[in-house]
Amino acid sequence: MLKVNHHQLYKDDKPFFYLADTCWSAFTNISNSDWKYYLDYRKQQGFNAIQINVLKQWDASGDDLNLYPFPITRHEDGSYSFNYSEINQEYFDRAEQMLYEMQKRDMVPVLVLMWCNYVPGTWASHLAINNQFPYEQIESYVKYVTNRFKKFNPIYFVSGDTDFPTDETVKYYRKVFKVARETDPNAIYTFHIKGRFEELPEEFKKDIDFFSYQSGHNFEGQHTAYDIPMHQRSLGFDKPIINTEPCYEQISYSRNMYGRYSAKDVRTASWSSVLSGANAGITYGAHGIWSWHHTGATFGVVEGEGFDSPFDWHDAIHFNGANDIAFLKQIMETEFPNGCYPTNIKINNENSIRSATNSKKDKLIIYLPTNTKVNLKDFDFSEENSQAKVIDLLTHNTKILDWFKPKTLNMSNVQSDCIIILTKE
Questions:
Q1: Pairing of β 18-22 and β 49-53
Q2: CB 327 within 8 A of CB 393
Q3: pTM check: above 0.85
Q4: What Rg value do the Cα atoms of the chain yield, rounded?
Q5: pLDDT (tens digit, 9 = 90+) per residue, 5-31?
Q6: d(CA 40, CA 45)
Q7: How many helices (H) and strands (E) does the chain have?
Q8: Number of C-beta neighbours around residue 202 at 10 A
Q9: What is the pLDDT of residue 301?
Q10: Cβ-based burial of 76 (10 A; exposed 0-12, middle 13-18, buried ≥19)
């Protein structure tokens, strides 16, 4: 059973560092045998949660299972309509079996109840090629899903990638949240909101179990990985915060900008989040896994986002960035088992260098995106009272780090980004 305690999640009364992989399209796109292989692979890497859309993911890659939560009618213009009044039992029978496979591996399902393309007024509602969910059908759908899935002790994302531009949008999500909470009061609830966005209606914010945000895939918006949790903490938000959608490895920059995010970019977004107040966990995504892409399959309906082609999932599952983020979890569980707290101190006059301490303030962790000497003039750590080590995030090797001056750490020989950990003697 998952619970919330201050800034952390707990599972069976032990600290639980949330490490989720993104597989929005699992229920519609993945064969049973591939699902088992995928779960085994991620479990071995150290992942303990999978983020899944209960409904059809609107921008998933093409699928050949032809299995959906409701009867579907396809139209000549490429759009499609669901009959939301008739639940497809076969679809949910299979989904339940897939969640059972997760349960056998002690992995937490993180389930999106209603992605924004199904809801009036959202940014995606103007681009979607599906019909929207009728308000009067929400209760029966949400009751059905939460009743079937509550035995798996899930986390629920009430929304997926949403904003809240209209009263009708809020009304829809109010209904989803209310019905879900009444049906499964023991589950953990939050809202997955759109990239670089942190405005959640107060009526929802006061009742969520943790705050979820996404720094997302916009090149100019990567600073939100640390800006959003810092701002939420400054507002007094005192529950867990998690970046549930940092940039995906090998996804292209959004809005048709040329370039793709590397494993290093993913590390930067992830470490920047965790050391800036979003310390309850982190999500990883691989471009080809979230949409479950096969070579030659269709992809993409969102002209405005303009993402380049995904990799085949057989390749994407082996992206090394997943190991890097699993290594982040390993470091946090080993060095900061009771969580870390952002210092909000600017190091070397550079915002991208992030740092946090433990509760006793006798251990300091610094994320250094680019190697350089580190000036600690504003910290109570020095050559006189502390030992330092550097962890190379490319090779995962650890070395002792020397001092250049009593309050300045020397530059190591690490050629990529690194973590520096100082411990008072």
A1: parallel
A2: yes
A3: yes
A4: 22
A5: 999 999 999 999 999 999 999 999 999
A6: 9
A7: 10, 22
A8: 8
A9: 59
A10: exposed
d(CA 399, CA 388): 9
Query: pLDDT for 331-377, tens place per residue?
Result: 999 999 999 999 999 999 999 999 999 999 999 999 999 999 999 99
Can you list the domains of the chain with their CATH numbers? 2-335 (3.20.20.80), 343-424 (2.60.40)
The span from the CA of 344 to the CA of 314, in Å, is 41
Name which of 81, 33, 26 is nearest 49 in CA terms: 26
256 pLDDT band, cuts 50/70/90, is confident
Long-range contacts made by residues 329-334, C-beta under 8 angstroms, separation at least 24?
A: 329/17, 329/19, 329/46, 329/281, 329/282, 330/46, 331/391, 331/419, 332/17, 332/274, 332/279, 333/15, 333/17
Q: Which two tokens stand for residue 259?
A: 């370039």
Structure tokens belonging to residue 25: 């399209």
Distance CA 200, CA 207 (A): 11
Written as six digits, the tokens of 223 are: 């600073």
Per-residue pLDDT of 263-285, as tens digits, reads: 999 999 999 999 999 999 999 99
| Residue 211 CA from chain centroid, whole number | 11
Say whether 33 sits in a helix, a strand or coil.
helix
CA 393 → CA 226, 245, 316, 401, distances in Å? 19, 20, 20, 15
